[in-house]
Amino acid sequence: MQTQVRAFQPQDQDAVQQLQLAKHQSMFAMPFDQFLVTTPGEFDGFVIEYDSSVVGCFMIDTTYAKKMDFCESSGLGLRNVLIDHRMQGKGIGVQAIISLLNKMKSLYPDHNQLYLTVNCRNGSAIKCYIKAGFVDTGELYLGGDAGPQHIMKASF
Asked: Which CATH architecture best describes the domain 3-111?
């Protein structure tokens, strides 16, 4: 089974709408239907495929450095990483993030850092990001609705 990351296409809309989060994860992520409302030039949507089926999605925020004072000017933001709860626990998230980091330089040649914030209570996501190559900066972001978040970054 292979995990791939690719740009969101309009024909992916139905598949993304079928994705489901576990109830305890809804506080950490944007609902999938809101994912579909992205702003061109601000957010680039991507899907995660496993064995040729869409099993998740995420966005790259190209204006992250303007919004978040901890983000260097050469940085981008990884936002709303969502994997269908029925597909979690298979290593898909780690594989997807590694795949993404391997593609970032070709996708965004004028940037070299990818940042994210992850809720301090979301231990499985924190482990996933570290395993995929992110480092915890040791700082907290306190502007989230669901409580304090670790600030993490990866170079590419």
From this structure: 3-Layer(aba) Sandwich (3.40)
